[in-house]
Specification:
This protein is α/β, with parallel strands linked by helices. It has helices spanning 40-46, 117-139, 157-168, 183-189, 221-229, 253-257, 272-285, 288-292, 303-311; strands at residues 3-9, 15-21, 29-38, 58-59, 63-71, 81-85, 100-103, 109-110, 149-151, 173-177, 191-196, 212-217, 231-239, 261-264, 295-299, 318-322.
C-alpha cells in the first residue's frame, strides 16, 4: 500500500516534494494520520534554514494525530484516537506530514475524549509544550495572587495556547508580541495587557523593575534576558523556544540576587506520565471551540508557502495540515 507524504531530500540539492511511499518506520503501532501541523521547527526544516533534519531522505512533520490502524502493543487497539509528538519525528525519524506512519506504542498518547484528531493537531507540539510550561510554573508554586505572568511570542502556537491556559487558571496574563495589530486576538484569548516586543529586544540592565511573577518564553535571546531581569523575587521562567535566537547574553544577577528559577522545557523526549498530564491539563481547560480561533487549516501541498510565511513572521495562531488533501 502506498501513501502520500511530504518528503525532504538532500541529493543532488535540497528539495521538498509530495511523494508516494510504500515504506514505514519500525514500530508496533501503525497509525492512520488524519492531521499534522506546521510548527516553527517544521518551517525551519522545510525552508532549509537550520540543520533540523539529521537523516535523509526525511518525511517532514513533528506532529501526527489520527487513529490506530493496527497494533501489537497491549495498550492500543484499532480505532483508538492517538497523538504522536516529538521523539525525533521530522528530524531523525520519518514524521507526521504523511497519511501513515508506524511508531512504538510507548510514544503514543491516547487522546482525551474531549478532543478529536483535528483538535489534537490544533494543539500539537506547540500547545502540548505550552501545557508543560504552565505546569512547570505551577509546580514552582506560582498562583494568581503572586502577580502577572508574561508570555513572549504570544501570537505563535506556544504563546497563544499558553495565554489561554494561564487565563483559564485565573492568572493575569501579559502578552508580548511583535505584531501589535493582533492585540484584539490576544485579548480574545484572555490577555489582560499586550506589550510590544521591541521593548524587550535591546540590551538592558541585569536587574530591572520587578514586574512579573513568572514567564513563558518562546523567543530566547535578548527577550529572555530582559524577561528574567523583570521577574519578581523567587519567581520562575519556563523557556521553551528560540524564535529570536539560541543565544542567552545574560547576567547571573536575577538568579543569585532575586532567587528566580529558569526551567528548560523539553517537549521532545518528555516521559509518558508527563505527556499524559499535559494533555489532561489541555482537556481540562480548552475546548474545540477555543481552538477554532487559533487553527488555520491547509493541505499537504500548501505547507511550503505556509512555512515561508511563518518564518517571515506573518503568521498568527497555528497551521494544521489535512494530510488527505
Amino acid at each position: 500500500m502506498t501513501y502520500r507524504a511530504l518528503l525532504l531530500t538532500q541529493s543532488p540539492e535540497f528539495t521538498v516534494q509530495l511523494a508516494e511511499l510504500d515504506d514505514l518506520p519500525e514500530g508496533d503501532v501503525e497509525l492512520r494520520i488524519d492531521y499534522s501541523t506546521l510548527n516553527y521547527k517544521d518551517a525551519l526544516a522545510l525552508c532549509n534554514t537550520s540543520p533540523i533534519v539529521r537523516s535523509w531522505p526525511m518525511v517532514a512533520g513533528i506532529d501526527a494525530a489520527g487513529v490506530v490502524a493496527s497494533s501489537t502493543h497491549p495498550e492500543f487497539l484499532p480505532g483508538d484516537a492517538v497523538v504522536l509528538n516529538g521523539w525525533g519525528l521530522g528530524e531523525t525519524r520519518w514524521g507526521g506530514l504523511a497519511q501513515r506512519t508506524r511508531a512504538p506504542g510507548d510514544w503514543l498518547v491516547k487522546l482525551p475524549a474531549a478532543f478529536s484528531p483535528r483538535d489534537a493537531a490544533a494543539i500539537g507540539t506547540a500547545g502540548y509544550t505550552a501545557a508543560l510550561c504552565v505546569q512547570a510554573l505551577q509546580r514552582h508554586g506560582l498562583a494568581p495572587d503572586d502577580g502577572p505572568i508574561l508570555v513572549t511570542g504570544a501570537t505563535g502556537g506556544v504563546g497563544s495556547i499558553a495565554v489561554l491556559l494561564l487565563a483559564r487558571a485565573g492568572f493575569e496574563v501579559h502578552a508580548l508580541t511583535g505584531k501589535m495589530p493582533d492585540q484584539a486576538y490576544l485579548n480574545s484569548l484572555g490577555a489582560a495587557a499586550v506589550l510590544d516586543r521591541a521593548e524587550f529586544a535591546a540590551p538592558g540592565k541585569p536587574l530591572q523593575k520587578e514586574r512579573f511573577a513568572g514567564v513563558v518564553d518562546a523567543l530566547g535571546s535578548q527577550a529572555l534576558v530582559n524577561a528574567c531581569a523583570r521577574v519578581k523575587r523567587n519567581g520562575a521562567v519556563a523557556a521553551c523556544g528560540l524564535a529570536m535566537g539560541m543565544d542567552f547574553p545574560a547576567s547571573v544577577a536575577p538568579f543569585i540576587l532575586r532567587g528566580i528559577t529558569l526551567y528548560g522545557i523539553d517537549s521532545v523526549y518528555a516521559g509518558l506520565a508527563r505527556r499524559q498530564a499535559a494533555w489532561a491539563l489541555l482537556a481540562e481547560r480548552l475546548s474545540g471551540a477555543d481552538l477554532a480561533g487559533i487553527a488555520h487549516e491547509i493541505g499537504l501541498s500548501e505547507t511550503l508557502p505556509a512555512a515561508e510565511k511563518m518564518l517571515a513572521g506573518r503568521m498568527t495562531g497555528r497551521f494544521i495540515v489535512d494530510v488527505n488533501r
